């Protein structure tokens, strides 16, 4: 079996247990194991998810004699920010994180007039091997734990609070294929969307989970009935080209991916976002725009929305974004087939923080 069809991350020791790894029952069990009354579990969760506090020594309603034990057992330091860079007049911030085992990955916080979005990683690296993506070319190091994913969200929420705002949107579009780390991503989504004290209370409609098209996992996610937005990275309307651009297409062809996307849309009532990185002279031909529109109209109808993404440059790549005139014609042709289509507002190119550029270089 080709390496890119093996979705399990390399076997490496996962980080120590953290409060954010645990559901409500797990937190209660962990607290009682420490010899504390069960109500302390809710207290700790309220500090973490509602007040964004991750240091028990700052939890003044926790007995002083218990703080060291709680810190060691439930609040190990998981991530350290190695480097933070900004662009767009400070509106876009990228953080390079280092985990306790030395693994590195990145997240990006983007501030807009009407929303504040953090793009988070679900894996360190990526095993999908898409040739136009810096993350995919770097290969997969390991899956992130639930808490490592959640901590990216908490850190962004703290930053927004300190800036006088509020984190409103979460997109699983950073490093990795989220559905290849299914159980931990699912648990993280539950922590993100649950109301305090069990989560951050962010609306499921404001959470987007991206995938290159792991069809069975898309159906499985649909059956969870979470109602998060599904984003499918399609990048080509024909199997011949997509086999090259998105190698997982060798396992699940476009028809299977779109059937799964339709299942998701029907199960959740949510429109599916189709991501399409537009690459000069590779996938931007008028006939491919027509074919994309026809296939999406047939498979999803009004439940499809195409996000055209001007290709972002990556080191060593000979590929480039399509000219603006070609981009406009591509969008026009997709819309002419009755499919909603817009061009994504690209942020963070100058700091290698845009789509496909994350490489976690220290």
UniProtKB/TrEMBL annotation:
Keywords for this protein: 4Fe-4S, Cytoplasm, Disulfide bond, Iron, Iron-sulfur, Metal-binding, Methyltransferase, rRNA processing, S-adenosyl-L-methionine, Transferase, tRNA processing
Any single biological process term in GO: tRNA methylation
Residues annotated for S-adenosyl-L-methionine binding in this entry: 176-177, 210, 233-235, 312
Catalytic residues as annotated in Swiss-Prot or TrEMBL: 106 (proton acceptor), 355 (s-methylcysteine intermediate)
Subcellular compartments: Cytoplasm
Catalytic activity as recorded in UniProt: adenosine(37) in tRNA + 2 reduced [2Fe-2S]-[ferredoxin] + 2 S-adenosyl-L-methionine = 2-methyladenosine(37) in tRNA + 5'-deoxyadenosine + L-methionine + 2 oxidized [2Fe-2S]-[ferredoxin] + S-adenosyl-L-homocysteine; adenosine(2503) in 23S rRNA + 2 reduced [2Fe-2S]-[ferredoxin] + 2 S-adenosyl-L-methionine = 2-methyladenosine(2503) in 23S rRNA + 5'-deoxyadenosine + L-methionine + 2 oxidized [2Fe-2S]-[ferredoxin] + S-adenosyl-L-homocysteine
Presence of the UniProt keyword Cell inner membrane in the record: no
Cofactor(s) of this protein: [4Fe-4S] cluster
Transmembrane segments: none
Cofactor note: Binds 1 [4Fe-4S] cluster. The cluster is coordinated with 3 cysteines and an exchangeable S-adenosyl-L-methionine.
PROSITE patterns linked: RADICAL_SAM
Family matches, as CDD domains: Radical_SAM
Primary subcellular site in the record, as a coarse category: cytoplasm
UniProt cross-references to NCBIfam families, sorted A to Z: rRNA_mod_RlmN
Note: Reaction proceeds by a ping-pong mechanism involving intermediate methylation of a conserved cysteine residue.
Record PANTHER family: 23S RRNA METHYLTRANSFERASE, RADICAL SAM CORE DOMAIN-CONTAINING PROTEIN
Protein's name according to its UniProt entry: Probable dual-specificity RNA methyltransferase RlmN
